[in-house]
Amino acid sequence: MSTATAGGTTGPGPVPPASTPSKRGKGRSVLGGRPWLAALFLLPALALLGALVVYPIGYSLYRSFFDASGGSFVGVDNYQEVFTDDRIRTALKNNVVWVIAAPSLATALGLVFAVLTERVRWGTAFKLVVFMPMAISMLAAGIIFRLMYEQDPQRGVANAVWVGVHDTFSAPSPFPGAHPSDSGILTASGGAFVTKATVRAGSPALLPLVGAKPADLAGAHEAVPARALPDRVTGTVWRDFVRGGTSTPGRLDKGEKALAGVTVEAVKDGRTVASATTGADGTFTLPATADGARLRLPEANFAQHYNGVDWLGPSLVTPAIIGAYIWMWAGFAMVLIAAGLAGVPRELLEAARVDGANEWQVFRRVTVPLLAPVLGVVLVTLMINVLKIFDLVYIIAPGSSLANANVLALQLYQSSFGTDVNQGVGSAIAIFLLVLVVPVMIVNLRRLRRERQR
Q: In CATH, what number does 77-158+311-453 get?
């Protein structure tokens, strides 16, 4: 009960005694449970972690100091081979390319998709389509892209598109592979064919060829002799061959097919003075300036059809496989970045626009800095992922280019279980991969801790 003072104010009441720690609390953890009880709950997870992570790492480290048989201690010889073997050095170089190119491109593409889909009416559907490859296994994606990268444009989608674009701007040759017959009228000059003798007006020239593919002659007309014109140089280009072998080389026989669309040039002193193209019956007509010239059939008439790019050749196999990886993982990056973008205060973006910034400046100076933590998560996650890349390389790269596309995870498999088995070297590669991954993981953990402290 409080007492009144002379001034009429009420004094403070009695101070409650300070609480003392309960004796029951002794020996208990912060969460109120006994330490041994917490350890008991953690024991299954620790046992699983030890069996699946700690023991394999420890045994791999131990095995890396022994030879292929596992019976002789070789010290650091296996690690020395990791840095001196040409195959492993190629794999290490390709891993550097993977770590730099694949995460950066996938993250950049995911950022672009995430930003642009905010302004698209069907943005959700677009995100679904981009993310769908994540539902496909690496094995299935490898088979898909192995077929896409086929060299034959009739089978490989990539080369079919590439050849279609090329042929749009550069017309294919009409008769690839055709060459002069045994008549001796034409002789090779580089990739072109030139008459041995000069031609005269009023005397039709005969330019016999063989080797034209039957498919290129489908629907071709029968060749006819050119008319003799006194003030023109005329002639015929035809396939000097009749089924059954009854034709005479250099003579236009009945039933022989005309070669239409062949360019014929008249050349004097190394200079083209006239040119013409053969008609459906194989004949051509040149002006009087061609009199006394040699006739030349340019190489463009007989060059092989453009067959596209050797995507899986030694020089392009690694970029081609990286393209397949980006196709799969750009959707993953897009979803994470879109989630981060949803948390960006729209007031900041609108304030930047009110201050006169255009969309590119808003993106570069406001959006990207605000998304830096999310971009860091995506980038580090993909870096760890590509250090372990194996499936795509093993499936997409053909045997002829597998050595050029080699990566450390694939070399680990080949060294441990391939034709030249040496599990000591394979274990050394595994430990080396672990050493490469650990710093990236530490950086990621530190960044996560900083984010929690904010």
A: 1.10.3720.10
